[in-house]
Structures are given as structure tokens and as C-alpha cells.
Amino acid sequence: MTLRIYILYLLGVVNILGLILPLAKLSRAENYQANCPTPGLERFLLHRVSHGENLETIAQIYNIKSETIVAMNPELQNTKLTIGSNILIPPYNGIVIEVSQGQTWRELGTQYQVRPDVLFELNGCQSPDNLAFIPVVNGKRYTPDIAKSSSQTDTDLTNPAIQAGNFPLQNPAKIALPYGWQMNPMDKEVFFHSGIDFFADKGSNVQAIAPGVVVLAQEKGSYGNLIIINHSERLQSRYAHLENINVKKGQQVKTGELLGTVGTTGKPNFPQPHLHFEVRARSSLGWIAKDPQTYLQK
Fold it and tell me: What is the topology classification, in CATH, of domain 175-294?
């Protein structure tokens, strides 16, 4: 069985009659964390080739490289596109690989020169399975585009970017769990922590670290009560496990403005009240977690 057929088998292709058909999600979708993006392997599409199309025009439709399409459809290396045929389209530039038993994201990251936390999130925030999506093109690391887009729908702001020195709590706080690969204090398993947890009394005020627009203010799975703010320069801050939410979606906020209060909602890594805080940067691979310490000094 070829890798391409294996992908189709795992993704459950049940209908190939439409122009662009989403593939059925894997049953294991229920297992990945609620605060992660949908795994890359579950976001493949089938594209039916129309008259006048070629690899370049199809690649432009999906904002990927033609080399990526060929990598997912190796039969195209030696044959031309056939009108009416269906080809696999991945969600990003990259390849699908078969994972050896016991391989970790750190090992795969070293092998393909990709940050292991990026691989972790692109593949559903779970341990490597039989297959993994790797953001490389022609064997070379694919660098996500984080330049400003011509479309300003994500961060249509005139506010300055996040400035180092601002803090999400009114008072200095001790770090309970830092950013990066950590051991879960509850079950002792190693996991990637996408932000910083700050100890704080329940009910402590949580404040915006920079001006921006609230794009989410609601309960969100394991995050609990969550506030997400989009800032200029394609940056984003997240404030999770809140007790109360004091802002609404679409609201403009200023630096230091009250957002809500510290709580224990969702599925925090430990029972003591704390603020889970993240900074993310917009890229062609989605919102990629950054080390918040770069932006915080207090």
C-alpha cells in the first residue's frame, strides 16, 4: 500500500464527486486537546481538476507551493494532470511522513529542522502516531510567512505592538509553570506548555498587556473561560482559566484595561488558582505559540 493510499484510507474518503470535498475526520479527533487547532492530517481536501488548470494555478487557489502538491501526489512527477482526476491538497506547505515507533516530536524536529512545539500543535497536541504532517518543502524547512498580510481582517489595528514591560496581572506574580516542554505535575507526563502559568489569588484582576481587539471572550474547552486579544503586527495574547470575563468580542481594549479575574475554570494543570497566559504570532501555519517572557518584564 502506497503512502498516498494509506493517507486516503486513514482519512476516510467516502465521496469524490464534488469540485472540492472535505475529507472525513479521523475518529481519534476526540482525543486531541480542545485548545489545539484541528490536526493537519484531518484538513486535507480533494480537488477535482478542471479544464485549463495546471499545478501552478491550483497551488495559487490554496496558497501553497506546486512542489507540495506533487509531494502529496507523487504520480504527478511523471504524468500530466488529467481533467476530472482528483488530487490531494494539504492545508499547508509540507509533507506527510510515516513515524517510526517511539519517535518523539523532539527527534522529528531535529531531523527536519522544525520547532518541535510547532509539530506538536500542527498534529493535534498529541504524541506522534503512524503518520505526521511536517512543514517542509523538497526536504527543506518551510518558514511560515509571518509578514503583514494585505488582508487586515485578523488585526485591523493602528495600535502599537506589544511592548516589553507590560504584565497581565496588576501585581508581580511567581511563575507556577514556565513556557516550553514540561512535566505535568498532575500525571508526571512530559508535554509542551504553550504559555506561562502565574500563581495569583482567585479573583485577582487580569489586564490587557497591550491595546487590541477582543476576538474571543467565552468558555473554551480545557482553557476554561478564555479571552483572546489580537494586537497589531500579527500578535495575539490569551488569558485562560478565568473566573469572570469583563469584556465582549469586538471590544477595543487599552493597555492595562481590566479583562476579568483569575479562576480555576477549564482543565488547568494544577488545582491552585492561576492565570494561564500566552503570546502567539500569526503565520501561514496558524497562530504559533511564542515564549511570553520575551514580552514580559516585571
Answer: Glucose Permease (Domain IIA) (2.70.70)
